[in-house]
Amino acid sequence: MASRRQADRWIAAGRVQVNGQTALLGSWVDEQDVVEFDGARVMRQSPPIFLLYHKPVGVICTHDPKVKNNLPNALKIPHRLFAVGRLDKDSEGLMLLTNQGEIVNRILRVENGHPKRYRVTVDHPLTAEFLQQMAEGVEILNTRTRPTICVALSVEVFELTLTQGLNRQIRRMCQALGYRVLRLERLAILHLELGHLPSGEWRELEAEALSRLYLALDLDLG
To answer: Do 52 and 30 form a contact (C-beta atoms < 8 A)?
Structure first.
């Protein structure tokens, strides 16, 4: 519910009760004790989990058990994790998975403008006009996309850095300019890089990267 510092402030303000009694700073609490915050019982939470996952093409970002290639089946881990920025079935690349909902909300909140970088392969040669239009913004879904960074890597491959997440945004942008996306890979979310993580594999986020993530999102590690 809160960092240690925030919890201390709530306890000092008399908003926390243990077994019906107002809690004191430094009190010990056992698993059988009933802890309440503003009269509502506080349930024991799982320890924080942060994973970087290289989603392959074909995996669908859903927990619906009726969907064959859903996220839990692909990950093969017992925890229910939130995906930070879903990738559609035909896309691949980096996903951040966590059981910390506030992290998801902070990254996905449009006004925060957190960057995500993609490598895109299209069906015919790039032009200077196409790259300029992608960078300046394209009319899709009754709005104009935000200006971004768009760099050609080869004749039909470019990198794009987005700070918004409209539905199927890159595919729609390319389609509006007469191109069809053949391959779409997410390479980075904020400072988190896909690197050499094999397709279909996941790894835990290192402590340093996690600290940088909390700092970037203006969150308290506690």
So the answer is: no
What superfamily would CATH give domain 115-189? Answer: Alpha-L RNA-binding motif (3.30.70.1560)
Q: Which of 30, 38, 64, 88 is catalytic?
A: 88
Query: What average pLDDT does the structure give for the chain?
Result: 90
Helices (H), the chain: 4-12, 71-75, 101-108, 128-136, 169-176, 207-216
Q: Quick one: CA dihedral 107, 109, 111, 113, positive or negative?
A: positive
Q: Are the beta carbons of 81 and 52 closer than 8 angstroms?
A: no
Rounded Cα gap, residues 77 and 104, in angstroms: 19
- Catalytic residue flag (residue 90): no
Tell me: the pLDDT tens digits for 30-66? 878 899 999 888 877 678 899 999 999 999 998 888 9
For the segment 129-140, the average pLDDT, to the nearest whole number, is: 97
Domain ranges within the chain, ordered by starting residue: 4-41, 50-110+197-216, 115-189
Residue 92's DSSP bridge partners are 185
- Return phi, psi of residue 120, to 5°: -125, 130
Q: Mention every residue, 6+ apart, whose C-beta is less than 8 A from residue 1.
A: 7, 37, 42, 45
50-110+197-216 is a CATH 3.40.50.300 domain: no
Whether the pTM exceeds 0.90: the reply is no
